[in-house]
Amino acid sequence: MGSSGFSWTLPVHPKLPKGKTVAVVVLDGWGEANADQYNCIHVAETPTMDSLKKGAPEKWKLVKAHGTAVGLPSDDDMGNSEVGHNALGAGRIFAQGAKLVDTALASGKIFEGEGFKYIKECFDQGTLHLIGLLSDGGVHSRLDQLQLLLNGASANGAKRIRVHILTDGRDVLDGTSVGFVETLENDLSQLRAKGIDACIASGGGRMYVTMDRYENDWDVVKRGWDAQVLGEAPHKFHNAVEAVKTLRAETKANDQYLPPFVIVDDSGKAVGPIVDGDAVVTFNFRADRMVMIAKALEYVDFDKLDRVRVPKIRYAGMLQYDGELKLPSHYLVSPPEIERTSGEYLVKNGIRTFACSETVKFGHVTFFWNGNRSGYFDETKEEYVEIPSDSGITFNVKPKMKALEIAEKARDAILSGKFDQVRVNLPNGDMVGHTGDIEATVVACKAADEAVKMILDAIEQVGGIYVVTADHGNAEDMVKRNKSGQPLLDKKGEIQILTSHTLQPVPVAIGGPGLHSGVRFRNDVQTPGLANVAATVMNLHGFEAPADYEPTLIEVVDK
């Protein structure tokens, strides 16, 4: 115990035994919604999850996984995998990316911080470049934050500004990019009226240009680098509205996959390549799809793509995107400090932990679960296994993904007797759901269900306990709806596919032969959410949670 009176030692639970193997299964993108043909979880054969749901009602509960329950500004904000796993692991609710940025912008503190001072050094002689997702989706970025950043930067001395846009169509409806570009162009023309040289310099669709993640495909980042830094792209236009409209019509690409373009002047010269002495800000607040471009902008020694020319710049992220890599080293808004996560407590109390997923969600079940922290707390008690994800294809091509392999690793870890907690993420519902391919998402949900069965069978064999939950919704609703819940149709009368996450609640199911017979879900927790899961899991390991954790979902009644 330190001088502050703080101790890592968790109190023993008065009624629940220690020593049971606990499997924690996170189904990614697996929410609860009305049963119809657009609910892929309902359409898919999912006998394991069905049996949990139809089992004892006191062992199945729905919890909130979006908005204020996971630290986002409002209940219009859909959850995402990062904030979801933060809440699941931390056991408390922390102000998250968007909220931190909103606060810093509203107070003006962002323009007084170290990160802004660092890039401001370039304003006299150089150009300020802003790179990010142009959308009001609120998952990676928000248009209104960009607008405040533009106004604040120009008020604080930026004389020449270039915006490099990435079109969305994934967290918002496809086709909305044109309107966002028109709004931005209007803002920039107002800045020009004040004598600021401000315009859009380049663009492209988020899934084809810049915003790759987990080093899946560096070509995506290279296409962005060539347009943003070198001022080179296969398509050249005099303005961005024309660019987006023309490319959508001619290439038939949707917003997510628009090819890269640069804006050129009358002589055909790019209006905004990044050169020595410039400042660059990536304005997305969500980390996962900014890490790769951050590396390309920040690292001196770097061989993942041919940068051709590496300008001497001052670069800052909206936030720091990777705490372990300290990347980027300069950022405009400081991250939430998440200390004392459940993972660290349990390891320090002797709980041997195994965590596994495939590449696309491995970071979620480790880094995000552990409070935005890479690595082990105690490598003698932990093992983290990453199974390589398929690369070079979209996930609807192989919708089973690595669910079976993840389940096999989990099963082996459970049966080995070497671990007290076995934690996995099954990515199928989310990653395939994002493709908008309904048939493939049905296959994905079935594969995830089969993986859950394999893990639960292993728990059965060792007399253990399971907790099956999710981080946010996706696969349970694949269609855009009007206010009364009816599917929206496009001009051709086709349904409008929903590729984004949802606002739906997610399940928490508990069970297994090791579960004390008196355990049941409480009914007195006000608005239960993902953050309540950590204390619940601690209880199942035989411990009481720290006093400041969100309350446990379970109680023990004497039979």
N→C terminal distance:
37 Å
Summarize the amount of helix as a percent range. Answer: 25-40%
Strand order of the largest sheet: 6-7-5-4-3-8-9-10
How many helices does DSSP assign? 16
Mean pLDDT: 95
CATH topology of the largest domain: Alkaline Phosphatase, subunit A
Q: How many strand segments? A: 17
Number of domains: 2
Stretches with pLDDT under 50, minimum 5 residues:
none
CATH superfamily of the largest domain: Alkaline Phosphatase, subunit A
CATH architecture of the largest domain: 3-Layer(aba) Sandwich
- Report the CATH C-level class of the largest domain: Alpha Beta
Alpha-beta content class: alpha/beta
State Rg: 24 Å
Overall shape: it is globular
InterPro entries: Alkaline_phosphatase_core_sf, BPG-indep_PGM_N, Metalloenzyme, PGAM_B_sf, Pgm_bpd_ind
Cofactor: Mn(2+)
Family: Belongs to the BPG-independent phosphoglycerate mutase family.
Active site: 81 (phosphoserine intermediate)
Explain what the structure shows.
The protein has 559 residues and is of the alpha/beta class. It has 2 domains: 262 residues, 3-Layer(aba) Sandwich (Alkaline Phosphatase, subunit A); 220 residues, 2,3-Bisphosphoglycerate-independent phosphoglycerate mutase, substrate-binding domain. The protein contains 16 helices and 17 strands. An 8-stranded mixed beta sheet has the order 6-7-5-4-3-8-9-10, sandwiched between helices. It has a 7-stranded mixed beta sheet with strand order 2-15-14-1-13-11-12, sandwiched between helices. Strands 16-17 form a two-stranded antiparallel sheet. Helix 10 links the parallel strand 8 and strand 9. Helix 6 packs parallel to helix 7, helix 7 runs antiparallel to helix 9 and helix 13 runs parallel beside helix 15. The longest helix is centred in the C-terminal third of the chain and has 25 residues. The chain is globular and about 80 Å long. The model has no long low-confidence stretch (mean pLDDT 95).
